[in-house]
Amino acid sequence: MNELTELERMCAEVEPASPQALALGRNRLLAATRTSTTRTPRRWPRLAVTGALALTMAAGLIAVNVTGETPSEPSAVAAAAVLDRAAEAAEASPDPTPRDDQFVYVKEARWSGAPGATPHARTDERWESVDGSHAGLRIENGKRVVIPPPKPGEYHMAPIRYIELRTLPTDPDELLAHMRKLTGNGSDKEVAMYLAGLLSNPVLPSDLRPAAYRALAEVPGTRVLQDVPDVTDRRGLGIAWEPVSELGGSEMVLILDPHTFAYLGTRHTYVEDAGRDGVAKGDKIVDWAAQLAAGVTDTAGAQP
Amino acid sequence: MTTGWSVETERICDAAIIERSRHEPDRFADLYDRHAEEIHRYVTRRLGRETADDITAETFLAAFRHRDRYDLTCDDARPWLYGMATNLIGKHRRAEVRFFRAIARTGVDPAIGSIAEEVTERVGAQSIRRQLADALARLNAGQRDVLLLVAAGGLDQEQVAAALGIAVGTVHSRLHRARKKMREALGGVNPTDPAQREGNR
Cross-referenced Gene3D superfamilies, in alphabetical order (chain B) (predicted)? Predict the structure, then answer.
């Protein structure tokens, strides 16, 4: 038995990746492919930002057969009106403002997996330190996992910390310009996805949520879908981008409560290639999320 | 350019997937489906499972962002992907050394699944594992990269050279030195083994 054989054995014993980890990684990749354009590849530092946002967005996605949904006329006017109502609603009942020593809490049902798989939502709860100085907590399937506080200078990924969200502009035009810059002057769809990712945060700084809705209303190519289910089958209004092209593609939908316009969740659908007849082969949800509760707590593990 | 898309999907080479993904970005997921598990295994061996989840995802994000630079004459994207993963692992160098030192100290290998461990645990395996882990922690980063790309990634020396962007001769000498150190670490495990005698000359 030589040293290389022994080492190979030690390598072969490694436990394979869990299906969940592989699915999550795949969704992160798809979130990136869906926001990409064919511009020059970015360098590493940008990648970190993109990865974080991509994960935030992937965290709020989905996929289901959408054929039953009312496709509705692509209507920029309707989308702008819905988003304006959402902004007003967010102003009328603003997100709570946490102190630095508190925690942002969210309870979420989510499913993510391979296109075409049967969705089965899992519920988890998370507490994240507002200023990043404390360990956070995640409870998933009754299992408690401590989220260690980031070390200074540590490379860390999403979710975006609350303290970082405070630095974003709260004027809609400035926010839109900021997001466009963040995407490297990316496509309208990419900007929209960044804004949708921002809106999927459970608690946003004062004025940022209405600003994000208003900024979103300015992005061309937005349309409204009726009666879109979230992963817990709550029905809402869908704000969608990237209509299906004959080459296939993907669609991200932000789901809002049809009465209160509150954020319900997101859904990400992968649309397979159209055949020569131009008919898409099928729509498959790959990531689907519903936000069930959100708030601010004094300690990790406490309910708001 | 000919990409071979007329053939069955499973026969399409990596280069064709990457080329197509330049215009249809979602196609890059095909490359993920093909290689993510393998890359994950490699990273798990070096940094443990949790870090491997992140680094594997980031490897493919990085690869996706760099897909325009991929040399389409290389049918097999594995060396390229292993190179990306190795770069990312390099940012966790101290964590990796700590990881192997902990295995050397405790004999417990967090990278191994508990079921696999029960089934495959051999008499003396834990002792060998500790010696190997200790030796891995002592290699310099360049030697460890080469050795683990061979042992965990299954790459040949030319593929390792491509993955790391170094000369094949450099791979050869690093591998030689790394293996020598591993042999020394295992010294006395099986003195009758011809490969080992050769190594102990």
Answer: 1.10.1740.10, Winged helix-like DNA-binding domain superfamily/Winged helix DNA-binding domain (1.10.10.10)
Question: For residues A53, A59, A60 and A61, what is the CA-based torsion angle, rounded to 10 degrees?
Answer: 100
Is residue B199 a contact partner of residue A3, using CB atoms and an 8 Å limit?
Answer: yes
Nearest CA in chain A to B84: A44
The CA distance from A26 to A30, in Å, is 6
Domain assignments of chain A as residue spans, ordered by start: 1-304
Give the residue from A4, A5, A9, A14 with the most B CB atoms within 10 Å of its CB, the best one to mutate: A14
Dihedrals phi, psi of B105, to nearest 5 degrees: -75, -45
DSSP state of A200: T
Radius of gyration of chain A (CA): 20
Q: Which residues of chain A have pLDDT under 70?
A: 1, 35-77, 113-117, 150-161, 183-186, 242-250, 270-284, 286
Q: Are B70 and B162 in contact (CB under 8 A)?
A: no
How high is the pLDDT of residue A282?
53
Q: In this structure, are residues B34 and A38 in contact, taking their beta carbons and an 8 Å threshold?
A: no
Cα B25 off chain centre by: 26
Q: pTM (2 decimals)?
A: 0.48
Residue pair A278/A294 in contact by the 8 Å Cβ criterion: no
Question: What pLDDT is recorded for position B117?
Answer: 52
Alpha-carbon distance of A266 to A288, in angstroms, equals 6
The verdict on A226 touching B (C-beta cutoff 8 Å) is no
- Give residue-wise pLDDT tens across range A219-257: 887 888 888 899 898 999 999 876 444 334 567 789 999
Q: Do A29 and B147 touch (CB under 8 A)?
A: no
Which pLDDT score, from 0 to 100, does residue B161 have?
92
> With a CB-CB cutoff of 8 Å, which residues 41-80 of chain A face chain B?
41-42, 44, 47, 50-51, 54
Outline where DSSP puts E strands in A156-210: none
Best mutation target among A4, A20, A29 (most B Cβ atoms within 10 Å) is A29
CA distance B175 to A68: 59
Give the number of other CB atoms < 10 A from CB of residue B88.
21
Q: Which two tokens stand for residue A288?
A: 């689907």
